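Task 17 of the worksheet. Students: predict the tertiary structure of the chain below and write it out as structure tokens. Keep your answer in the requested format; marks are given for formatting as well as content.
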Amino acid sequence: MSETVVASRVPPLVLIHGPESVLIERAIAQVSAELKLTDPQIEIVKVSGTGYEAGELPLQASPSLFGESKAVIVTDADEGNEAFQAELLAILPDAGAQLILVVAHKGGNRGKKIVDSLKAAKARVIDTPAIKSDRDKQDFTVNEFRRAGRKTTPDAIRALIEAVGSDIAELASACQQLISDTTGTIDEHVVAIYHGGKVEATGFRVADAAIAGDAGEALRLLRHAIATGLDPVPIVAVLASQLRQLVKVGAAGRGRSADLARELSMAPWQVDRARRALSGWSGDALGRCIQAVAAADFEVKGGGRDPVYAVERAILTIAAEHG
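Model answer:
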């Protein structure tokens, strides 16, 4: 990662590079605030590569009428048409004391010449990489609370990620809600009050009960979820995800949880939980369970007549396979 904090003086060229929209928005806000702090009179304008009309960049980059400094923030540079790319490249040499160019590019080959030109011109690079793996999500969540000076427990981080799911914007919003609405240490109980009813959280509770061999509790949780209007599709997805984690951790063998977590793109607590859950499981049994969940996935997505019964059957299979 090149840089995550803008220094006290914003250089003439800044490249915000990477696909994560939440991080892009924050980087733009961060640079904008730094620009205003450095020069309260600076004029800041935004230009998007999406739906670009020829001539807009040269117009916006032209000197201010009264000689004030100007900053042009260019978003979605990877989506700009040929006119956009040509005009942006043409104004790069104009960046200096009176003109600052901030360019956000989500990655990919389109507009790559812009990225290469900015890097060749020694632009400051702020990376906004995709947050995909469970470990990435854990680190992001921990940092959200750390930035706000709030203490959390590992169980709270786990519960929040399980409840909110994979959408990073929703995860960031959930963190901010807890930061704003609560005091003291944020633990699993606090997370459950705010997010315990979400479908992802319900799915994890169903999966935990089934994998532990408690068919009755798993079915009770499932039926309650369905009765409150939750869709069975994401519940099946959680079942599949939890079983895959058991297989990965079981196959990885011994080692420190932190080391295995890095190797498997999981969070350390997920490795620890999978290790605890593996008691009573064989590789063959896990294989049969994965096949049962795959069949349920097909049925809940339109391949069967009764999606709820399909999930129940998968849960009964999982619970029965637990040794």
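Marker's comment: Residues 261 and 268 are 5 Å apart (CA to CA). Residues 1-8 have pLDDT under 50 and may be disordered.
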